[in-house]
């Protein structure tokens, strides 16, 4: 089955295309062409004016196991450790612990989907997440190795930095770790430790990097290693954000992530807006919207070594797509300044996973492939893959009351 999706604009995101649509072969989930309409499609989705399609957003850092609310342990702290101690001794952590891991993953997956995210990097050991990854309504990156972070008091995920990094290189996977998330003596030696293990390479994806010095950044740039920033989480825990201008000046590949909602923001859309604002406050300069869109599409695809699958709208890649409402004539700004109701539709492998209910005719054509339900999200009627309302009610049963989760603003009638 071939579908043709035609918005007003396509953001590839390197180029802005007008008068073109996206041909998708649904059996393979891949884009077969990006061109003018020439017929030869089984389903046509003409999205009309004021719509822009971008590649499905990649959230470069989340911990789906921590998909709960509210935040705990506000800083400023000297390192992540006092925050982690406060989290684990908190009432809300006890409440969260009543929910089986799979359901926390489901909450996290829907949090991401309704903010236009189609691929998530879940920084959690394989033994925790491997049985859930295929059952979620978003893509979760499954091929990676990891460490928790690089210090003597880290949480000992995986088989140690040296072995995990070597495994990443052998398999052409990313090696993912938190780095210098804090300002104590050990945190600030993160890059030196990585180097001593031979683990600072172009396979290395490092999260936070708050204490990175100019010398560290030069080494990262030279190695072709990748950085991920989570500004809301950083500000909550440390009352500062990373030295992003210094990162960009060295042409380091930088991506944006959310962290979990127990330290970070509601979703990647809030993170994008916060990044824009915080950058201006820190540097008295504008961070352009194009850079921010790259930080959630092609940059993370490169960092996580999945650029032949997702992150761009291009023949041969998966048709993971998000349709945004186009505001004015700035497609990049339309993404950065968007909120829930600016997302018209989300597709994964060419299949609609989420959208306004006025696209019902489109969803009906896919009802033999995936199951849908209705949900009122942020006040508007939606069609969404799976039984979101059922999942939320199950969560309520586990915790014993109608838990409010602002990252999933669903209205459920009594
Ligand atoms: Zn994290």
The CATH C-level name of the largest domain is Alpha Beta
Number of strands: 21
What is the helical fraction, as a range of percent? 25-40%
Associated small molecules: zinc ion
Q: How much β-strand is present in the residues?
A: 15-25%
Instruction: Tell me the structural class.
Output: alpha/beta
Please identify the oligomeric state. single chain
Treating each run of at least 4 consecutive H or I residues as one helix, how many helices? 15
Number of domains: 2
**Mean pLDDT, all residues:** 97
Rg on CA atoms, Å: 21 Å
**Strand arrangement in the largest pleated sheet:** 3-2-7-16-17-18-20-19-21
Distance between the termini: 40 Å
Low-confidence stretches: none
And the CATH topology of the largest domain? TIM Barrel
At the fourth level of CATH, the homologous superfamily of the largest domain is Metal-dependent hydrolases
Shape: globular
**How would you characterize the largest beta sheet?**
9 strands, mixed
**Level-2 CATH architecture of the largest domain:** Alpha-Beta Barrel
Overview features:
single chain; 414 residues; alpha/beta; Urease, subunit C, domain 1; TIM Barrel; 2 domains; 9-stranded mixed sheet; 5-stranded parallel sheet; binds zinc ion
How is this structure best described in words?
The structure is a single chain. The protein is α/β, with parallel strands linked by helices and 414 residues long. It has two domains: 2-56 and 311-370, Roll (Urease, subunit C, domain 1), CATH 2.30.40; 57-303, TIM Barrel (Alpha-Beta Barrel), CATH 3.20.20. Helices cover 30% and strands 23% of the residues. The chain has helices at residues 80-88, 91-96, 101-113, 126-129, 161-171, 190-196, 214-223, 231-238, 244-249, 268-283, 289-294, 298-303, 331-336, 360-364, 388-399; strands at 2-6, 9-11, 16-18, 21-25, 30-35, 43-46, 51-55, 57-62, 117-122, 139-140, 145-146, 175-179, 204-208, 226-229, 253-256, 321-325, 343-348, 351-356, 372-377, 380-385, 410-411. The protein has a nine-stranded mixed sheet. Helix 3 crosses helix 15 (388-399). The longest helix is centred in the middle third of the chain and has 16 residues, at 268-283. Zinc ion (ZN) is lined by residues 61, 63, 123, 178, 207, 259.
């Amino acid at each position: 089955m071939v579908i043709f999706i035609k918005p007003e604009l396509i953001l590839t995101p390197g180029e802005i295309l007008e008068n073109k649509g996206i041909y998708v072969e649904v059996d393979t989930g891949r884009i077969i062409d990006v061109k003018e309409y020439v017929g030869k499609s089984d389903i046509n989705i003409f999205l009309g004016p004021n719509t822009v399609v971008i590649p499905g957003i990649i959230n470069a850092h989340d911990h789906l196991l921590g998909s709960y609310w509210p935040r705990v342990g506000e800083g400023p702290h000297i390192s992540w450790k006092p925050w982690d101690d406060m989290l684990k001794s908190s009432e809300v952590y006890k409440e969260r612990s009543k929910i089986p891991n799979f359901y926390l993953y489901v909450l996290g997956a829907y949090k991401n989907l309704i903010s236009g995210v189609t691929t998530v990097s879940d920084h959690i050991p394989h033994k925790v997440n491997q049985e859930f990854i295929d059952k979620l309504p978003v893509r979760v990156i499954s091929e990676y190795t990891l460490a928790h972070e690089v210090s003597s008091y880290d949480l000992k995920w995986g088989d140690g930095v040296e072995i995990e990094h070597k495994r990443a290189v052998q398999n052409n996977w990313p090696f993912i770790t938190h780095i210098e998330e804090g300002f104590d003596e050990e945190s600030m030696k993160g890059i030196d430790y990585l180097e001593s293990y031979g683990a600072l390479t172009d396979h290395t994806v490092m999260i936070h990097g708050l204490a990175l010095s100019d010398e560290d950044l030069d080494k990262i740039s030279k190695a072709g290693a990748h950085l991920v920033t989570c500004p809301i989480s950083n500000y909550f825990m440390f009352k500062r954000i990373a030295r992003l201008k210094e990162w960009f000046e060295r042409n380091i590949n930088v991506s944006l992530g959310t962290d979990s909602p127990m330290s970070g923001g509601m979703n990647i859309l809030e993170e994008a807006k916060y990044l824009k604002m915080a950058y201006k406050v820190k540097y008295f300069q504008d961070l352009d919207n194009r850079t921010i869109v790259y930080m959630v599409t092609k940059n993370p695809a490169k960092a996580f070594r999945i650029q032949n699958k997702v992150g761009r709208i291009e023949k041969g890649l998966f048709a993971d797509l998000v349709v945004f409402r186009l505001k004015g004539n700035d497609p990049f700004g339309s993404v950065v300044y968007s909120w829930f109701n600016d997302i018209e539709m989300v597709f994964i492998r060419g299949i609609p996973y989420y959208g306004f209910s006025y696209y019902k005719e489109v969803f009906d054509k896919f009802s033999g492939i995936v199951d849908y339900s209705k949900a009122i999200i942020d006040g508007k009627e939606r069609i969404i893959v799976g039984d979101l309302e059922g999942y939320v009610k199950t969560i309520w049963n586990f915790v014993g009351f109608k838990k409010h989760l602002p990252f999933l603003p669903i209205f459920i009638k009594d």
